[in-house]
Task: structure prediction
Amino acid sequence: MLSSVSPGSGAAGAVVTLTGEHMCGPTSDCSTAGGQIQIGLSLPAVEAQIEMFSDTSAQISIPTLTPAGDTQLVLVVDDESSNALAFTVLP
Result:
């Protein structure tokens, strides 16, 4: 479950920190969790570049191909989606 994103907006290349609980799945084992951060709820969603990942936080980089505007960040671990957090991609 995601609880916060900081900062709440950023341009392509920005590093963003997500915090939450059980981000590596119910076992909290990040070494076996297949996780990704999706930017956008509708397809095609963009997959963020993960810089650091743990059970309580993750740092991501916003890819250059991410469309500007209001969107959502969603954590997907082992095909299970988290709640979505609002995020704005700046031009």
